[in-house]
Amino acid sequence: MKYLTKKLISTLLFITILMLPISVFSVGEKPMFKDIEGDEIYAISVSALAKLNILKGYPDTTFGAENDITRAEVVAVNLRFLGKEKSAQKAKGETVYDDVNAGHWASGYINLATELKIIEGDGLGHFFPENNVNYEEAVKMLVVAAGYGDEGIEAGGYPDGYIKFAFSKKILDGVTAKKGEIINRGTIAQLTYQTIISQLNIIESSLDEGEYASSQKTTLTCLSKNAKIYYTLDGTMPTEKSAAYKNAITIKETSTLKAIAILKGIIKGNKVLSKTYSIKTTTLADKNTPLGGAFTNQGSSAGRSGNAGGSNGGGGGNQPPGGNGGENVPPLVSVTGVSISPEYAEITIGETTYLNAAVFPSNASNKNVIWSSDYKEIAIVNDAGAVTGISEGIAIITVTTQDGNYNAKCEITVIPNEADVSVIFGHSPTGDRTLTVTVDGQSVSGTLDIEGFTMKVTDGRAAAPGAATEVAPGKSYTLITGNNIYTGIIIQD
Description:
By secondary structure, the chain is of the alpha+beta class. Helices cover 19% and strands 27% of the residues.
């Protein structure tokens, strides 16, 4: 009986995994962690999040799904799935909580999460970063991080309203934990993965379904800002091989638009946006235009050249059919879109990179474009698409067509110039472990993170007690000084 029960549970788990939206295991692919066989209820979630660097394993290649996870660690998971890892690193420093000092490894995550209202603390100045997270705390953080904060409040607020809303979005599917229970890393992986799925499922079109008398444009948006949208206009199911959404789509004829969202090629939503548009355009035939167009100013399409008729066709405006023919003026070809490449680029301060714009169709009559930057103090762009970094940060460069105002965007990240940074290990006369920190030969002040151990640097010097073995040659460091961030390896004096 025990054997049958175990076999039944394994079968049910396998069926449940098959029902999940997308598998990140390829045929013959081995699980990423040696303590995960691949048939666990959380296996797909763990693998996907690990590939996205949202929730990582341990150095010994185990994941530790049954291990507890702290409140600070869950905050970090939230910021990573929002794509705000760099912003969190820059936010390191003093916090509003008495129990989270500036040197805490998660101070940046906690500061940013507080600003985004993902966390609030206990109202008395405490966050309890090292406490193990419980079910309702984790659900509330994920619901707010995903952009559903108002809906959670409307459903009843903390904790039941957030749990109720999460249930309605299928974020809790397959999760066995209950309110008040401490949850483990495997459960956090499930909840986070399914929260991302819920975001990917929300794709919206700016154009309502219906019948229109002329061509229309529609824009697509997804709640997951880091996802890519793929679409078709012929009613077929979109895949990653379908057209990638970049700018407004022109609906020229009766079409069924279908779209899906995929996060970095790894996690795919399980709902498809579907909109049907009927375009009923009026043609010359509908207007019952007389042959040859003798009573119009333009005449028929065969003889529409200036004021004279074509050599073989109907007459031009006010001209009899079969006239001598006028000058052959080519028809205007309207712009239908524009693309930009690359869509993402990283440059240093003072560096220049060149963006390319392609106007569609290739035979468009007016291919002129206008370049612009949303943050000129970070990056500027000239009329040829040359982008120059001004200061550290992120700027969006937009190219817009003169004909039709179609646009495409490129995200430019400007980073500090490479510098000659040295962090040299030594000992003080009292036996303390010391570090001498310079950038381009100049002593600096700031914060030094050595694989999770944080030190304050003042005028190029940092010191730790002799027992602080975290400070040693060969250790990797992250140095934050002013607006600049440097990484490297500590060297021996």
